[in-house]
Amino acid sequence: MTEFTHSRRRFMVLSSATLAAAPWLASCASAEGSAAIPAKAIGMPWPNWGELPDTPPSAPNAGSVGFAVMGLGGYGIGKVLPALANGERCHVAAVVSG
């Protein structure tokens, strides 16, 4: 079994190591390096289950309840989104796909 010892000295060693590595970690996470990699779409942006409208939807009515649709399978796209689009007192506030 591993024993964890908590001491002020160990805390200071780990803190200073973290602070020493912070600039290096920040340079690794910069977005400048990713600009050289071309962006490429994978797969279809919209399945063949429906057509996208030519114009964006109108603003929701006052007092309308917004719903987030999570998961864009056949049920979400084929049943839930059309039902929310036709609702008078509800609207799609967010779409979550993972």
Number of strands: 2
Low-confidence stretches: none
Radius of gyration: 24 Å
Order of helices and strands: HEHE
Overall mean pLDDT: 76
User: Helix amount, in percent?
Assistant: 25-40%
Coarse shape: elongated
Largest sheet: 2 strands, parallel
DSSP helix count?
2
Strand content: 5-15%
Structural class: alpha+beta
Order the strands across the largest sheet as they lie in space: 1-2
Query: Termini, distance in Å?
Result: 38 Å
Structural topology:
Layout lengths: L7 H21 L36 E6 L3 H13 L3 E7 L2
Question: Can you give me a brief rundown of this structure?
Answer:
Helices cover 35% and strands 13% of the residues. With 98 residues, it is an alpha+beta fold. The chain has a domain of 66 residues.
Characterization of this structure:
This protein has 98 residues and is α+β, with helices and mostly antiparallel strands. It has a domain at 8-34 and 58-96. It contains 2 helices and 2 strands; from the N terminus they run αβαβ. The protein has a two-stranded parallel sheet with strand order 1-2. It is elongated. The model has no long low-confidence stretch (mean pLDDT 76).
List keywords for this structure.
alpha+beta, elongated, 98 residues, two-stranded parallel sheet, 2 helices
